[in-house]
Design brief:
This protein is an alpha+beta fold. 34% of the residues lie in helices and 16% in strands. The protein has a single domain, classed as Amidase signature (AS) domain (Amidase signature (AS) enzymes, Alpha-Beta Complex), CATH 3.90.1300. The radius of gyration is 21 Å and the shape is globular.
């Protein structure tokens, strides 16, 4: 079997049936890293010997006939933000260069309990603060489709590693499109669940035990090469965990098998005032037409009556207030509590407006970002979209709208642009409806095209 591009379930089944050993599966991924990571620079903090020992133990468990978890013996990586016992967590930030947590975050613990073998971390933007993955500790991650282009950020290392076959899956963080944008740039799938669906405990290094300030808009979710793989990892990591008290006890359901004739899709090839490349808007419209031809109920939607630019500004203000609360010393003029509650009330109006749209539609099909993977550049430099310079800080706007609203959204590959780079489209659903949203995405996969290996991998 092709261990490095198999589905997670197929790889786990092959290990369980002793068609391939966990050691062989690990070694196949390590060989892929040795062949390609020098150019891509997606994988960091590699634990070869520890992972090999764990793989041998996994094979021994199979030989003893023990009960196996759904990830038994499957090697995997994690974005370099999750706290992991015995492995550095740096977020690309020099003061955290040697930080090792005393215990695993709940998400890490669940993946390990399911049988997964964590063998490396993946590269990020410094402190997760950019849409290119570059930092002073590990350098710059490149896109496996074109090394002159970015893999995106802040989960760029995760997306590039999944696309290049260096790992079967990863788990990223997403406060402003940071899972979906790199997934789109690298041609893989990425899911941002509903806010407060997956534990944020231990999702960022915390050497001093400070109070957790990031409590809104940020989500954890998987990156993988198929909808089925997204669903598998999502179901493992979602739900209350005993540490993050913000999590809602909403059942985590299995992904349904849907017929397109039962699906109601709204689509928008652009949002008012948001730039977008012509190849991307055309991909939205072409897929919408194909879905309609195959029996889905499809309509070009009238978006909620919202000032989406103001939503982005308000989201940025909320992030700023959370970051202010995380500072060791309060500012001379701290934000008044009334402003915080006013910002939450403004956000509620946006959430309810989007909720109304999803009362009559299963999903909204729209862009993930204004462009495909752009050339490496200095943060803040104008980005060319169809030859016209656009504001760098608008790169994640289409995705960040749904961080502000809290709705689940995923990025799915949908062909390539005129220069051969992957196009990713966004599918957004009703809050708490990840399983149905994933089912809609799977029903659309044959028309959208699914994952393709980058050339040379």
């Amino acid at each position: 079997m092709d261990a490095i591009f198999s589905s997670i379930a197929d790889l786990a089944a092959a290990i369980a049936k002793r068609k391939i050993s966990a050691v062989e599966a690990l070694d196949a991924h390590l060989a892929q890293i040795d062949s390609h990571n020098g150019a891509v620079n997606a994988v960091i903090s590699l634990d070869r010997e520890g992972a090999r020992e764990r793989a041998r133990n996994a094979d021994a468990a199979v030989a003893r006939g023990e009960a196996l978890g759904p990830l038994h013996g499957v090697p995997f990586t994690l974005k370099d933000t999750h706290e992991t016992a015995g492995m550095k967590t740096t977020v690309g930030y020099p003061p955290f260069a040697d930080y090792v947590a005393s215990h695993d975050s709940p998400v890490v613990a669940r993946l390990k309990a399911a049988g997964g073998n964590l063998f490396a971390k993946t590269n990020v933007a410094t402190m997760l603060s950019d849409w290119q993955s570059n930092n002073p500790l590990f350098g710059r991650t490149s896109n496996p489709w074109n090394l002159e282009r970015t893999a995106g950020g802040s989960s760029g290392g995760a997306a590039a590693a999944v696309a290049a076959g260096m790992t079967p899956f990863d788990v990223g963080t997403d406060m402003q499109d940071s899972i979906r944008l790199p997934a789109a740039f690298c041609g893989v799938y990425g899911l941002k669940p509903t806010e407060r669906r997956v534990s944020l405990a231990g999702a960022f290094p915390d050497p001093t035990g400070a109070a957790r300030s990031v409590r809104l808009m940020s989500c954890l979710g998987p990156l993988a090469r198929s909808v089925d793989d997204l669903s598998l990892i999502y179901r493992i990591i979602a739900g209350p965990d005993g540490r993050d008290t913000d999590l809602a006890p909403v059942p985590v359901e299995a992904m349904p098998k849907l017929d397109l004739q039962t699906v109601r899709i709204a689509f928008a090839s652009t949002f008012p005032g948001f730039p977008v490349a012509g190849d991307i808007s055309a991909a939205v419209e072409n897929l919408a037409r194909q879905l309609q031809s195959d029996g889905a109920t499809v309509e070009e939607t009238k978006l909620p009556r919202l000032d989406l630019h103001d939503d982005l500004a308000q989201g940025g203000a909320l992030i700023g207030m959370m970051m202010e609360a995380a500072q060791p010393e309060p500012p001379e003029e701290p934000t008044p509590v009334s402003r915080w509650f006013g910002a939450l009330a403004r956000r509620d109006r946006s959430i309810l407006a989007w909720d109304a749209l999803f009362e009559s539609h299963d999903a909204l099909l729209c862009p993930v970002a204004m462009t495909t993977a752009f050339p490496h550049c200095e943060p803040g430099a104008p980005i060319k979209v169809d030859g016209q310079g656009q504001n760098y800080w608008m790169i994640p706007a289409y995705g960040a709208v749904f961080n502000y609203s809290g709705h689940p959204a995923l990025s799915m590959p949908c062909g390539q642009d005129g220069v051969g780079l992957p196009i990713g489209l966004q599918l957004v659903g009703k809050r708490w409806s990840e399983s149905r949203l994933l089912g809609v995405a799977r029903a659309m996969t044959a028309l959208a095209g699914g994952f393709n290996r980058p050339p040379g991998y």
